[in-house]
Amino acid sequence: MTLKSIRRAYQVIKITLHYGLDELIPSKMTPWYFKLLRNCLFWIRNQHKNKVGGERLKLAMQELGPVYIKFGQMLSTRRDLLSDEWAEELAMLQDRVPPFDSAIAREMIEAELGATIDTYFEDFDDTPLASASISQVHTATLKSNGKAVVLKVLRPDVEDQVHADIQLMSQTASFLETLLGHGNRLRPAEVIEDYRTTIEGELNLKLEALNAIRLRNNFLDSGSLYIPYMYEELCFTRLIVMERIDGIPVSDMAALKAQGTNLKKLAERGVELFFTQVFRDNFFHADMHPGNIFVSREHPDDPYYIGLDCGIMGTLTDEDKRYLAENFLAFFNRDYRRIAQLYIESGWVSPDTDIGAFEQAVKVVCEPMFNKPLDEISFGHVLLELFRTARRFDMVVQPQLVLLEKTLLYIEGLGRQLYPQLDLWQTAKPFLEDWMSEQVGPKGMAKKIKQEMPYWIDKLPELPELVYDNLKMGKNFVKSQNQMLARYLTQQQRSHKSNYLLLTSAVLVICGTLLFNQGATLWASYTCITSGTILWLLGWRSRPKNRKF
């Protein structure tokens, strides 16, 4: 470890103890060396004994800085691991940090462009439009077309800071795994690994730009979602340049109402957008918190969303999509047996799971929800509770499902904020039923045939040769099998003959020995022994040799 990393480790330990996070670990699970280390740092005391555990953790992460703030935000979505109280505390973490010097921002932008800012832009604003833990945003005008753009640049040395903090987190997680045991509910090593994947993806702004381009193309003519245009030739690993948009933050209810926005339609479109991204495109924005979503000022009676920050995107396999859709449909049909079967068929839980016990556990979770009106049932919480239940049956962690769950919770919270009477089932059910009919019905079969047809047409000229080759291989295989069978039968016959001769020789030798000991006629004794010896030699020579078939 370097001196810098040692200092950072001490700072993290100091803040952790300052907020009394060590006291949250049960005493019976704390080893003697941990207690000894804590006593050695006697001058650091818990200054927040009057606060609950979740609030202490939130304040500690806030003080630890950007990497820990984003980690806390990610952890707040893991309600399968944390209680609602802790998750809600962490959800209040805000990713706002002071901006860094604009002179440094200029240097970093010019280093990525390989030219001065004046070469491509005019009216570059040194005052940042926004500043977050990973990046900073400045505005400018593009010289080539006079359009307003924003430049998003990574913070200086942010990669080194992230990697150092992630390494420290991993080491801490490994220690906690040892301390709590691998069967513990929190699974710290797994959580840190998920976070590593997420935050390292956010450090590559070129990837964010490519994600935005793909999402934009998916909704070019939708009228529901607008993704700002990316100037791909000006996008790099540490810098991206995109169209500047003018919209109302989706959390600004006063402004939305002031312009007469159709909030019911806006809320329903949010749900439709989620299911379209997941089931139609299999490419969904997995960081749709209110700070990344705006509403257009145009057509308030027919509003559409504007999406930003495509650094974290999610995808599902075809099997995952089908099982999820069936899960939702089975839930509203109260078919708990089918839900249990789906979890086992999908491989999310072990095939050895007692399906009857699992069905009962699902029923205990889901049945009380039907006492609520449909417009109060949360898809996100249904999925969350099902995952929690499956954890008790050793559910295998599915990172892509965690992203989906987080996104669904965001969308539902947003929809109900816009329109509290939103009935997600009424909005989503037709979509899910149509999608399922297209996947498993005649439409689905026709669609798959249509998709595969170009491939088979391309392979059609090769078909006669492939058929001939396979028939020839089959003929050779049968011939080979017959030859192996013949060799096997011959070897078995030789084996039986050899065993017969060896057994007969043993009997004759024993008989000759007995006659000799009893003083019988010597010629009879010698004849038996000699015959037995000859048969033994014949049997030994005729024994089959070991050979592979």
Automatic annotation (TrEMBL):
E.C. no: 2.7.-.-
Molecular-function annotations in GO: ATP binding; oxidoreductase activity; protein kinase activity
* Coiled-coil ranges (or none): none
Domain named Protein kinase is located at 123-456
Q: Which InterPro entries match?
A: ABC1_dom, Kinase-like_dom_sf, Prot_kinase_dom, UbiB, UbiB_bact, UbiB_kinase
Assigned GO CC terms: plasma membrane
Which SUPFAM superfamilies has this protein been placed in?
Protein kinase-like (PK-like) (SSF56112)
Q: Which domain of life is it from?
A: Bacteria
Protein name (database record): Probable protein kinase UbiB
* Species of provenance: Shewanella psychrophila
